[in-house]
Structures are given as C-alpha cells and as structure tokens.
Amino acid sequence: MGVILTVLNARFRADLPYTWLDTSHLLAINPCKALSSINDASVREYEEHCYRDMSLSLASACVLQPHVYELTAQMYLLMWRRRESQALVMQ
C-alpha cells in the first residue's frame, strides 16, 4: 500500500492527477485547482493519439499521460467499433 500512495503522491505533486489502475479503472485525485492539461489543445491531442489513430490497438492506443480525455476517447472508439452503448460510472 505504501508504494501505491508514494506513486499517487508523486503524480499529484507533478500535477498529474490521473492514474490508470488497470485497463478499465482510472483513478483521479482532485487537484482543487485549474490544470494546464484541461484545455482545447489537450482535447485535440488525446483525440488524435487515442481515437483517430486506428493503426494502434486499444490496449496501447494512447502513449500520453493518463487523462480523462483518454478514457472518453477510448469509450467512444469502443462504442463506434462495437456498435454498443458505453457507460461511465464515477464514484
């Protein structure tokens, strides 16, 4: 448990509040401030790398830092490929 907290703390201090726990669980720690990664340019970057590049597999579709934009791009891609509705549950 100590290693996990150390990683989460380091990412939080580096203004990287998102961390993948596995392929379907994204942990977000509220930074309680505006982040530079929340903007239109970031949206376009994640869209380009995680959704539009169809040559990559879903497992390795995105090489950027974990982000909620990555999650939404992957969900949309799955919805489009499988023709199935997707749901996002936030707790």
Question: Can you summarize this structure?
Answer:
This protein has 3 helices and 2 strands. The protein has helices spanning 2-13, 40-52, 68-82; strands at residues 18-22, 25-28. The mean pLDDT is 79.
Write up this protein.
The chain has 91 residues and is mainly α. The chain has one domain (2-82). It contains three helices and two strands. A hairpin with a 2-residue loop joins strand 1 and strand 2. Helix 2 packs parallel to helix 3. 11% of the residues are buried.
Any descriptors?
91 residues, mainly alpha, 3 helices
Strand order of the largest sheet: 1-2
Mean pLDDT: 79
- How far is the first residue's CA from the last residue's CA? 21 Å
Instruction: Name the poorly predicted regions.
Output: none
- What is the N-to-C order of secondary-structure elements (H for helix, E for strand)? HEEHH
In DSSP terms, counting alpha (H) and pi (I) runs of 4 or more, how many helices? 3
Structural class: mainly alpha
The domain count comes to: 1
Which range does the strand content fall in? Answer: 5-15%
Helices and strands in order:
Elements: H1 2-13, E1 18-22, E2 25-28, H2 40-52, H3 68-82
Helix pairs in contact: 2-3
